[in-house]
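Field reference: "sequence" (input) and "structure" (output). Example, Pentatricopeptide repeat-containing protein:
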Amino acid sequence: MRTWWTRALAVLREMEVIPLQPNADCYNHLLNFLVQENKLKMAESLYSQMRSVRVQPNAKTFNILIKGLCKASQMDPALDLLKQMSSHHGLVPKADTYNTLIRGFIKRGRMEEALELWKGMNSTGCIPTNMTYNALLHGFCNQGRVDEATRLLEEMSGTGLYPDTVTFNILINGFCKANDPDRAMDLLDKMMQDGFKPDVFTYNTLISGLSRIGKFHEARTLLDEMVKKNCVPDVVTYNSMINAMCKEGKDGKLDDMVKFTDDMLARGCIPDNVTYNVLILRLCREGKLYRTMRLLREMQAKGCYPDSVTYNTVIDGLCKQGRVEDAEVLFGEMDNHGVVATLITYNSLIDGLCRAGRVEGSN
């Protein structure tokens, strides 16, 4: 990076020597590069140099710097730059500038300041876009303020803007997080009535939301509908269903969980750590350690490497059934594979060794 940066800066300085005055665009190329490389201090230094040689920044200059400051969580300096655009340079910020700042404030949980910026847009005649409203809706939903999100959606429609797929997905996710899947399902119906096609994220959000509050059969019905509409389930879809079955804890569900895994593979969807960890947890709970160990080895053979959650679950299951030596073998395997043991790992082993009357083995 240093070589390219040095060479680009040398070209800029050569222009000054010729003399050929660089314009804002020359600096903008370099500023954008530095911001993308997370070299904010260097970008700020270059901006100071730009000002010292009396090159007037343009709107793009400010957009680049504001984006960099937001990326670095420096929201107050970013807001100061927005004010400087109009007060010092006579530039009118456009929607993309406001959107960058609004998203930045929301990401840091500063929702009220994001709302103030939105109101400021309206007062300066800068028209908010779908991206503006989507960011604000996302902020409300993240804070569980779904009723305010609903009112904002109504206000959005009153401005002549219409919800898009992203808008619906944000609201559906918000209602699911608020454990209100009925209103989320109403939004799914409205989404389709308005001519928008639900995507895999839409279905995954709803399936996860329904599963989380124990509505497994409704989630299964939605999965069937998803497949009928040619929306291909992914690993997140299947993991939500498998996790729901695990929580149901009814007899026979284990076989259904395994069938879901087979269905995943048949559709070319590869199980991940989450899939295997849920299955292994259920097997351990039922004391089926032979199947647990077989699944652990199958997981490794398929290139899906166990993490600390996997090992902790199996080690705990082995210790509870008195198979402490097997648990110790897995503990050694963890170290060999670079998986860091946690407090849970050690507690399980110590408890198992104590039960087996082999406390000296924990030293």
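The longest helix spans residues 2-17.
The radius of gyration is 28 Å.
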